[in-house]
Every structure is written in structure tokens, then in C-alpha cells.
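haha ok so turns out i had the wrong file open the whole time. this is the CORRECT one, sorry everyone. sequence first:
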Amino acid sequence: MRSILYIAFFTIVLNLSAAKAEDMELTADNRVEWHQKEQKIVAIGNAVASRKDLRVRADQMSADYKKTPPAGKTQITSVHAQGNVIMSSLRADAFGHTLDYDLAKDQMHLQGSPAKIKTETETLTATDGIFYYPNAKKAIAIGNVHADNGKDQVYGDKMVAYFEPKSGSDSSLEMKRVEIYGHVKILNAETTVWADKGIYNPKSGIVKLYDNITIEQNGNRLHGDYAQSDLNTGISKIMAGPSSNKRVTGVFKEKSKDKNKDENKAKTPAAKQTSSAPTATTEQK
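then structure:
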């Protein structure tokens, strides 16, 4: 039989929006403990904290609280969930091994292999953890970071993502702006981009790139210090930095345009023997 505890002060835990305090049901397969002297609540064994718009599941969960003057109201100060953490809410879901929530700092720290935050339109993962700030609608992901919106793939050592309510929805979030640092790589079906730093707007598909930039499309490559690329149209602009003496360079691969020459070659015995070979290309700089 599951242990059940209704507690009026176990509120707004792991909520991804500033909401009114509501009672939350805390259950566990093994036991729920209330340590009044330590001002702590512990749930052990498939612990679940749930309310109308939120559900958190973990192997074990604990919450620290304090009483605030003058009325002595009880207030949660921190929450720790450990083991197979799954958080589900109206705006986003999170998955990891551990989840720590410091309410005073308005900061969650999710760790996993990898840690993952998933909205209706995007998925964000990181091997070294994700910090999430619910009221600010901001996430900082560290370590082999990967963001996927179903159309574009974004990679980097560190990523700072800002969310906003999805158009036409009061409950769902979508990425508004993403800042990427270190070993930046952005790709879709048409284009692959590398840089040291990037700023990405998922709605417009515009990426601003800085330092050591390479843009590749259909075998063609551009190199420079600053670039702006439209992942939707495939149009990219690249230039040298204002303080750099480097030149913008490009390598373009083209198929032979001399059809008659190709047709004549195809009629020769030697050409017939090698007709399965790939089309020759030329490089221009």
C-alpha cells in the first residue's frame, strides 16, 4: 500500500511558471517521513509529488522547509529528487538522475546521462547538467549540449536558451533565443555551420556566428570571422571581422557544364568501361 501525505506547504515545487500555491499530494511505495525537528519531508520508493498541473516522480524525494514570521507560515526552501527523475508539467517535461530545486534562487539543477528538458516543440539535452530558472524562463545547459526542434540540430559546449509562451497557447513554451558557446555546430537538411560562438533564433531560422566560421552547403564551403545564415532559405553572408586581417575565402564544387564533352566521352570504349564512376568535380577559390 502506498504511503500518502497531503501537505499544504508542499507547493510550487518544480513548477515551470509562477503560479498560485496549491496543495500537492506526496505518495511513495515504501514510506513518507515527516521530520519535524529537521523541518524535512522524505518520500522513499517510487515517490510521486503531484497536483493539478504538475507531476514529479523519483526513486526518492525530500523537501526542506522553514516557518516564516510573523504568522509562522510554512515555506519550502529546497527540494531534492533522486533516481529516475521524471517531471511532467503543462509547459515542459524533464528527465534525469537527480533534480535539485533551490526556491530562493529560483534555480533547478537537473543531472543525467544526459539530462533532458522537452517542450512541445524542442528537446534540450546535456551531459554535465541543465540549470533551469522557472520564472525567468531560462535554461543553461553544459557539456555536449544538443537542441533539436525537429528541423534544425544545434550543438555546443554550453547553451543558454530563453523560452516564451507558444503562440496561441497559455501553457506551452517554445525557444525564443539560443546562445551557443564552444564547438558550435548547427545543421539541417541543407546546411551545416561551425563556429566558436553563435546566436540562434529558432522562429526565423537566422543564426549569427562569430569566429572561425565555416558554412557548408551542397559541398560548397565558406570561411570567415563573422556570418549570418538563414537556415530556412540556405542564404548565408560571411565576412572578415573588423579587427582581423583575414580574408573571406570559399571553396565551391561544381559539376562539369560541358554536356557535349561528357556525351562524347561516354561514347568511347574507355568511357563505357568507367561509366559507373562518379561525376568529376572542379574546385574554385
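Helices lie at 259-267, 269-273.
again sry for the mixup
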